[in-house]
Design goal:
It contains 7 helices and 10 strands. It folds into 3 domains: 39 residues; 120 residues, Tetrapyrrole methylase, N-terminal domain (Cobalt-precorrin-4 Transmethylase, domain 1), CATH 3.40.1010; 97 residues, Methyltransferase, Cobalt-precorrin-4 Transmethylase, Domain 2 (2-Layer Sandwich). It is α/β, with parallel strands linked by helices and 265 residues long.
């Protein structure tokens, strides 16, 4: 057999294999119809609801929340419901399911938590329910929801991300400064993890997010690297008890989970 004939047979086999796969899929769908099984599954939306100010909710976020059959809301172990509080006026007696999201770095605990949430969401989607899973800030920036989104995609469910205004964009606007201009870089750093001093010397504006209990340690690191005069701390931007510290030498306490630092060059 010539190489050309062999290649022709290989291509033909590939087409036959694809056609058989497609036929098998059609047969499965037909069998589902015969058995009366539900065909249409619901869709999962990951919805960024902004940093805290309800006026910073996007038009699309409001529409998706209103149109969803169910709203899934993260809850901290302490009982905090920041995302829920933001969207409350738009829920209009809608069914809300709360999921406890532990603030831990224990991977085993996190994996189990994500899996349990995915199981519950799968039940709702299998019933044909559209679910809006709300999350603070933007859904793509250090959002726990993205772990859930990956699990649901792996299970074959349809998902969509709805972006929101980030906390650091809102904070920069609140203090009246640009994050970056012209060719200036912007560096986003998760402050709740160990911070290498080498990050301090990266060019551009630096944003340290979710400083929490690391706030004073970060303040001291900025002082040691002669950057304290270039930094501002903003806590709970757009929420009740908002706090802005422009002189970090006067900073009292580390701050909450909702605190961030903006360091300009």
């Amino acid at each position: 057999m010539s190489v050309q004939n062999f290649e022709s047979l290989r291509v033909l086999f590939a087409y036959v294999k694809a056609d058989l796969t497609r036929s098998a899929f059609i047969m499965v769908r037909y069998q589902e119809r015969q058995n009366g099984e539900k065909m249409d599954k619901g869709k999962l939306y990951g919805v960024g609801v902004g940093p805290g100010d309800r006026e910073l909710l996007t038009v699309k976020a409001i529409r998706v929340i209103r149109e969803a059959d169910i709203v899934a809301s993260p809850v901290m172990k302490s009982g905090g419901r920041a995302a829920y509080d933001i969207v409350l006026p738009y829920l209009e007696n809608k069914k809300v399911i709360e999921f406890v999201m532990p603030m831990t770095k224990n991977k085993d605990e996190l994996v189990k938590n994500y899996s349990d949430i995915a199981d519950k969401l799968a039940e709702l989607l299998d019933e044909g329910k559209n679910v809006a899973f709300i999350t603070l800030g933007d859904v793509t920036v250090y959002s726990t929801y993205m772990q859930i989104d990956r699990l649901m995609k792996d299970r074959g469910y349809d998902t969509e991300l709805v972006p929101g205004i980030t906390s650091f964009c809102a904070a920069a606007a609140r203090i009246g400064t640009a994050l970056c201009e012209r060719n200036e870089p912007l560096v986003i750093i998760p402050a709740s993890y160990d911070i290498s001093e080498t990050l301090m010397y990266l060019p551009g504006t630096k944003v340290f997010m979710k400083a929490g209990s690391s706030g004073l340690e970060l303040r001291d690191m900025l002082r040691d690297n002669d950057m304290i005069d270039k930094a501002v701390m903003i806590e709970r931007c757009g929420m009740e008890n908002e706090r802005i510290v422009t002189d970090l030498n006067e900073m009292k306490g580390s701050g909450s989970y909702f605190s961030l630092f903006i360091v300009k060059e």
